[in-house]
Design goal:
Layout: H1 8-18, H2 21-40, H3 45-54, H4 63-72, H5 79-83, H6 89-100, H7 106-113, H8 124-135, H9 147-155, H10 157-174, H11 181-194
């Protein structure tokens, strides 16, 4: 594992040049929550903060640009991602971090890749960043009722993730929007790992 080069201040400065102000505010809030969750769950808080700061590095790109990067980086594109290319910004972001930022920390790159839908083999760092991204305080402007999940996340990341998966899937069904296949697979894999019996 190689540390991300540069101080947190240098990462902030580079992101300030590359991200829209709204996205920059989001990643800063996500990083604050990720540090707190990391401390509560035995994850290196510096690593969690840096990963959270970098998780939306590809958020600024248009649908056409994301599809172009996916082709350039040989990232497989599902039918759902082809219809909603914004879903690719995690995978594209991981490749940009590896190729342009020199990040070689595979666990951190996986966390960036999986922060939108989750993944089937997520480590604790990836879980911290996934949960922090969904629960950072400004999410309350768009979604209500997140405080109980925030409280749960401080005690049990897996339980909080299952609540977030259920909430997201219900939201998509209610809006008659497609559900990314990876979201379904990630939820099912987490259930398999955390449930010892079925009732």
């Amino acid at each position: 594992m190689t540390e991300i080069s540069g101080t947190v201040a240098e990462i902030h400065a580079r992101l300030a040049r590359e991200l829209l102000p709204e996205t920059l505010g989001h990643v800063k809030r996500t990083a604050e929550l990720a540090r707190q969750l990391a401390v509560d769950h035995g994850v290196d808080p510096d690593r969690a903060e840096r990963g959270a700061l970098l998780h939306d590095v590809a958020d600024r790109y248009s649908d056409v640009e994301l599809l172009g990067f996916a082709e350039q980086f040989n990232i497989p594109v599902s039918l759902t991602e082809a219809r909603i290319p914004k879903l690719l910004h995690g995978a594209v972001g991981a490749e940009i971090l590896r190729r342009e930022w020199g990040v070689t920390d595979d666990e951190l790159l996986d966390a960036v890749r999986d922060h939108i839908t989750g993944g089937t083999t997520m480590g604790r760092l990836a879980k911290v960043i996934f949960v922090a991204d969904k629960l950072e305080p400004a999410r309350d402007r768009h979604y209500g009722g997140l405080d109980p999940i925030r409280e749960l996340a401080m005690r049990d990341l897996d339980a909080a993730m299952l609540k977030l998966y259920a909430w997201r899937m219900s939201d998509l069904v209610g809006a008659s929007r497609p559900i990314d296949e990876r979201l379904v697979h990630a939820r099912n894999a987490l259930i398999e790992r955390t449930r010892t019996s079925w009732g």
